[in-house]
Amino acid sequence: MQSNILICGVGGQGIVLTSKLIAATAMEHDIPVMSAETIGMAQKGGSVFSFLRLGDDIYCPMFPEKTADIIIGFEPAEAVRMLPYLRDGGQVVVNTHPIMPVTATLSGSDYTGNEMLDYLQRNVENVVLVDGNRAIEEIGSPKVLNMVMLGAAVRNGVLPFSVDDIEDTMKKTVRPQFVELNSKALRYDIK
């Protein structure tokens, strides 16, 4: 079985760590994996995305449009921007909290993200909305949005792992003082 996963958002949201956790978990389970990220704009709050491919007979980390099984969108506009990669019947797990792009800030426009969420709900059969702001407020740290999003994606069954699998890998990856907080975020109930 092969899985094509696309993770997208803006710099500082933890996209690269999320990608590394999925890749490391795949390797722990002897699942071949390849990944590629764009990280050049990460320091400036620009677009960041990661392609991951899991399974046998993969020869390149990138995949063509209309072949992603899941898009994990940490920001609504970025999820919409990557939507051409989603296959028919694929799933989008998206954070409902927008981040104002620099261009919108400079032009004085008001971007709320609602139009992007509406677009996703009209055009994607399987959309999971995650109230990222509520989650990080309840958990007590803005730095765990990536774990909230990853946990939501895993629980919705598209990834070939359990939350326990991801947690085991996370415990080997993050500093010990952050394990409990990240575990709480992975297991956060998005309802």
UniProtKB/TrEMBL annotation:
Residues 11-187 form the Pyruvate/ketoisovalerate oxidoreductase catalytic domain. One of its GO terms (molecular function) is oxidoreductase activity, acting on the aldehyde or oxo group of donors. Keywords: Oxidoreductase, Pyruvate. The keyword Oxidoreductase applies. Pfam families: POR (PF01558). InterPro entries: IorB_Oxidoreductase, Pyrv/ketoisovalerate_OxRed_cat, Pyrv_flavodox_OxRed_cen. This is Indolepyruvate ferredoxin oxidoreductase beta subunit. It comes from Ruminococcus flavefaciens.
